[in-house]
Design goal:
Blueprint: H1 2-18, H2 21-26, H3 31-34, E1 38-49, E2 62-63, E3 67-71, E4 84-92, E5 98-104, E6 115-117, E7 122-130, E8 136-141, E9 147-159, H4 161-166, E10 172-174, E11 178-181, E12 184-189, E13 196-200, E14 212-213, E15 218-220, E16 224-231, E17 241-248, E18 252-260, E19 269-276, E20 282-290, E21 296-303, E22 312-316, E23 328-331, H5 340-348, E24 353-358, E25 366-369, E26 371-372, E27 375-376, H6 395-405, H7 411-420, H8 422-431, H9 437-446, H10 453-466, H11 470-480, H12 490-493, H13 496-508, H14 514-522, H15 525-530, H16 550-557, E28 572-573, H17 586-595, E29 599-600, H18 610-613, E30 624-625, H19 655-665
Parallel strand pairs: 11-17, 27-28
Antiparallel strand pairs: 1-9, 2-9, 3-8, 4-7, 4-9, 5-6, 5-8, 10-12, 12-15, 13-14, 13-16, 16-17, 18-19, 18-25, 18-26, 19-20, 20-23, 21-22, 21-24, 24-25, 29-30
Length: 675
């Protein structure tokens, strides 16, 4: 039957090229038709979309060089006895150029592709796919790096109508036979209405009277050969289906990125890992967070729930005892209506999330759904990319380039780039002088406008739409989404000159090096007040105060190296313990926090401690270090009010002051000054 289907595929492919599908059905009988193979239409039906949550017919996206096996027989009205299907395959925004090949499951990958594509485009192709083992097809990507999302929509199948009328359609297994990690939940299906199924998992051959009657999903904890037969009175029994499932029990890693709950205004963020044990009886949970608005009041895992929806508490971390390394062991037990297999299935399909509750957000401030981690202990470099085609860019290539490098090109700009070429255009953009947002703000102030963040936004929009340096503007926008400040913050929102100078800083560094950019962002007074680096006091053992760690965490986690080590292609590096490799620990954060003490606004007297605690604000120049100051609780220096609040009364040099200094010097925190 498969050979017949292949012949039909070849004929049908030729017909598709002429755009005359009806010719296939109305033409003289082919060899395949003579053997009894016919085409049956089904209502268009989506059987796979990797953009959906992780699951048998959903995500994740197909990684470079990856393979995905997909059952089609028995889905969307397709007979389980089908030999081939007609389907439309769509590629959605791949991260790099490549191709997909679709072929019968269990067969070698073909040398030809089903669909070729370039990066960041949507591409589709309608084709016929012969079915392989268990009515399935395999999909493999020839993409050198990154990943690709794809969609499969079926619209018909090939089968033998005479066989379907006299023989029960064979059962199909989902997921198809193969190698899997952890216990698998199998389902059996036959497209023959009213038929029953019996199966075995010990290798014996079932019949219509022997074997286990199929009544629901089958749990397969270990390697086994599953055999099944479908039968119905008045029809011949189906052929016996046989499939080998090789089950291993390696831990599986899932990762969650914690972001603000829907509708919550919070600068908080975090990450979590969940290492599912090989026997699927427990998992190890690790998580961290920073920058929450108020104190943490609770933490839980919830599910089963799709993203954007809420689920019951599955693991109450508040009641759990942390391990020595700070992790938590979650031993699975039934919760409410959720059984242990359902909890494990929810974890594997991205339907379990962690959320952190705070006093200001008692129902949750940040949350993240766990998804299967893509990582490896060893990095295999991809092959070098192909050379760019010679000659001037095509209109399509020019338009795509300008859509990425600007806020959108005109027809004239596309034509000009074709003449100018990519290199010349880039070099010209590098030379365009920076237009200062701070100068725009000052001009508005000089014109008598009431200055606020509105003029800053106005300047940013004007430069984006009308400026001669769209490349600089696009890069600065990208940087602003990494090195974030926000006028929602009261200190930042009340300092429009700080916002303007900060955007000037990003644009000034748009074409520079990352080291300089990171230093300039660190010393920006606007960033300093937003993430608490400006005015950060050193530790004081006398009072128990420690340096503020907010900026220390952000510069590591969000601004530079991130939480976990990654390979050059962005995939996680996995350690010998099966977990992501941490790039830093709490001691690193403490060390960074100590470094980020003693910084204040530019100007003033760097030897005057009062200029640290009551500084004159200056958002236009980089911050600078106060070279001599002591913790506020035990400073040996006489306290002075800011200039605007000072009295004309001379300060007393009484014994009380001397006593204060003597007492302060007894504190270990006052044994030295400076930072």
């Amino acid at each position: 039957m498969l050979a017949n289907a292949v012949r039909v595929v070849r004929l049908y492919s030729k017909v598709l090229l002429t755009g005359s599908f009806a010719l296939l059905l109305l033409s003289a009988p082919t060899a395949a038709q003579a053997a009894g193979t016919s085409f049956f239409t089904v209502p268009p039906c989506r059987v796979l979309d990797t953009r959906d949550p992780v699951g048998t017919f959903g995500g994740p996206a197909l990684a470079s060089g990856g393979t995905r096996v997909l059952n089609l027989a028995g889905r969307c009205g397709i007979s389980t006895g089908a030999s081939a299907v007609s389907a439309n395959v769509t590629v959605v925004n791949p991260t790099s150029a490549g191709h997909l090949a679709v072929f019968p499951a269990g067969s070698p990958a073909p040398a030809t592709s089903t669909l070729n594509y370039r990066a960041n485009i949507v591409r589709a192709n309608n084709a016929i796919f012969p079915l392989g083992a268990d009515g399935a097809v395999a999909v493999i990507t020839g993409q050198p790096t990154g990943s690709v999302n794809f969609i499969v929509d079926v619209n018909g199948y090939f089968g033998d109508p005479a066989v379907d009328q006299t023989v029960v359609a064979p059962p199909v297994l989902t997921p198809p036979p193969g190698s899997y990690n952890g216990t698998q939940t199998l389902t059996l299906f036959t497209s023959t209405a009213g038929a029953s199924i019996r199966y075995t998992t010990d290798g014996s051959v079932p019949t219509s009277t022997t074997g286990t009657p199929y009544s629901g999903s089958i749990s397969l904890p270990d390697t086994a050969t599953v055999k099944a037969i479908a039968y119905k009175s008045g029809l011949a029994n189906s052929p016996v289906l046989s499939g080998l499932y090789t089950i291993t029990h390696q831990p599986t890693l899932f990762v969650a990125t914690l972001v603000p709950e829907a509708g919550v205004q919070s600068p908080g963020s975090g990450s979590a890992t969940l290492l599912l044990a090989g026997d699927e009886a427990s998992a190890v949970l690790r998580f961290s967070y920073s920058n929450l608005t108020t104190a943490v009041t609770g933490a839980h895992t919830h599910g089963p729930a799709d993203p954007g929806t809420n689920g019951q508490i599955l693991f109450d971390i508040d009641d759990a005892t942390p391990e020595a390394d700070g992790s938590f062991v979650w031993t699975f037990v039934p919760v409410g209506t959720a059984t242990v297999p359902q909890i494990v299935a929810a974890i594997r399909t991205g339907r379990v999330y962690l959320n952190i509750h705070t006093s200001s957000h008692p129902t949750g401030e940040i949350r993240g759904h766990f998804g299967l981690a893509t990582g490896s202990p060893v990095f295999i470099p991809p092959p070098p990319p192909p050379a760019l085609p010679g000659g001037p860019p095509t209109a399509r290539d020019a338009a795509r380039f300008l859509h990425q490098a600007t806020y959108g090109p005109t027809t004239q700009e596309i034509t000009a780039l074709q003449t100018q070429g990519f290199d010349a255009w880039l070099n010209q953009q590098f030379q365009v002088p920076l237009t200062s947002h701070l100068a725009y703000l000052d001009a508005a102030d000089a014109a008598g406008e009431e200055i606020s963040s509105n003029q800053v936004m106005e300047s940013i929009w004007k430069q984006a739409v009308q400026g001669p340096d769209p490349l600089r503007q696009r890069v600065a926008l990208a940087l602003s989404e990494i090195f974030v400040i926000s006028d929602v913050d009261g200190d930042v929102g009340s300092a429009p000159d700080g916002m303007a100078s900060y955007m000037d800083l990003l644009e000034r560094n748009a074409f520079g090096n990352f080291r300089t950019l990171l230093q300039d962002v660190t010393l920006s007074p606007t960033m300093g007040v937003y993430l608490d680096m400006l005015g950060n006091d050193k530790e004081d053992p006398w009072s128990g105060r420690n340096p503020n760690e907010n900026f220390a965490r952000e510069i590591l986690q969000l601004f530079s190296i991130g939480l976990h080590k990654v390979f050059p292609d962005g995939t996680l590096a996995i350690g010998a313990d099966g977990l992501p490799i941490a790039t830093y620990d709490q001691e690193t954060i403490k060390g960074f926090a100590r470094v980020f003490t003693g910084w204040s606004y530019a100007g003033g007297n760097t030897n005057d401690p009062d200029d640290f605690y009551w500084p004159p604000k200056n958002y236009r120049s980089p911050g600078r270090a106060i070279t001599r100051w002591a913790p506020r609780s035990c400073s040996t220096a006489p306290r002075r009010l800011p200039a605007s609040r000072r009295s004309r009364i001379s300060r007393s040099r009484s014994t009380t002051s001397s006593t204060t200094r003597t007492s302060a010097r007894s504190s270990p925190a006052c044994s030295s000054s400076g930072w």
